[in-house]
Amino acid sequence: MFPTYASEHNWVCSDSWRQYLVVSVFWLGNTIGAWLWGVLSDVYGRRVAVIGNYGRRVAVIGSLFTYGVAGLTSVFVNNFYGFTILRFLTGSSHHTVSHLVFVLVVEYCGLKSRVIPLLSLMVSYTLLSIVTSVLAWVVWEWRVLLCVAPVCCLVLTLATRWLPESASWLIAKGRDEDATLQLTRVARINKTHLPLDMLQALLTQKRRQSIFQVVRYPGLRRNILLVLVVWMLGCMCYYGHCQNTSNLSSGVLLSYILGAVVEIQRVAGRKGPLVVAYLTSALAGFVYAVVPQGTDWLVLTMGLLGRGSITGAYYISLQYGPEIFPTVVRGQGVAVAETLGGVAVFLSPLIVYLGEYERRAPLLIFAVLSVIGGAATQLLPETKGVTLPQTLTQAQHFAQQTAPRCFKKSRSSEEDMEDGTQQQQQQQQKQQ
Asked: Where is the chain membrane-spanning (predicted)?
């Protein structure tokens, strides 16, 4: 049996709930941390010049440091409450470390290269999952394994000096000159030029817009609500499948390695593959629930098929969110999505815990949730090859053009565009 913190402290039988509680607290920390790092970055960016020069990067630096210190410290804590608190702190930085950087990169990508960051994230996560599994098999010591990720995070803090700042964040803070220099530098590295009309359009964007202003735009509001549902279900089902791996037949480490291998898949488009991924995962879950006992190979196959499919859905939803949110509120929108996704992931260990009483229950529940995710995705527009909307008005216009027939009623897109134009004119008059 693989030695773990739980087995070493005898978290079994009547105390087995502690394992699931620690995992839930970790994701509760992720939920709170998604907002915390965003707020700290925004506040320090306005009030402290030195830290403000980092802008959004301060969240990346702080989260890397927190993850590293809290992760290493948890190795030396031998009581339940102390370990739980440290896992909460580690979780508060978990998604910020990877997802915020992903959003920064996407903002600088063109139409043809926008999927590259997502594929890079998928491949790196998959390969390192395999490496971690093999390392656990070779080392066979949970303390060493727990130190790997924190040490990597502490080392990566040194690389943040080369992390470019978000041009949209600089513009939102009124630092037009810095934004121009940043965009010019990116264009020079890419051996191209920055069109003056594009630069002027970026610099004249409405400043300090709030994610809550989307309620004034019915089409955009609908798309954002749908993408939040898709994001939440993707997070809940993906992490639930990962945590449920131990309930599958075969050894835990072998199942985890196989599960990581099937995650390697190429993303073609957004809407179609996402619907297929959700429904395939649902089908695998339903088949898993009715497979008779004694057919371990079929149980393992359906479990891994479900996990592989929901992995595709999870990563596509990560791409979908930043593409639906317009640039002026993209950071806030992703923060909202991360928070709601954290709530969903917080609940996933509780669903997995049902496997202690009925082994098939978790995947059956995730199958039902996957059907809901596929239905919600069907109402979203395809964003592959589409220029990312910069303003709320552009996002509303895109939503109206791509809306399903059942939503094309009440107000016209022209009326919504007029409202958006009037709001922009009023804001410009206030600035003058």
From this structure: 20-37, 58-81, 118-137, 143-163, 224-241, 247-265, 272-291, 297-316, 336-355, 361-380
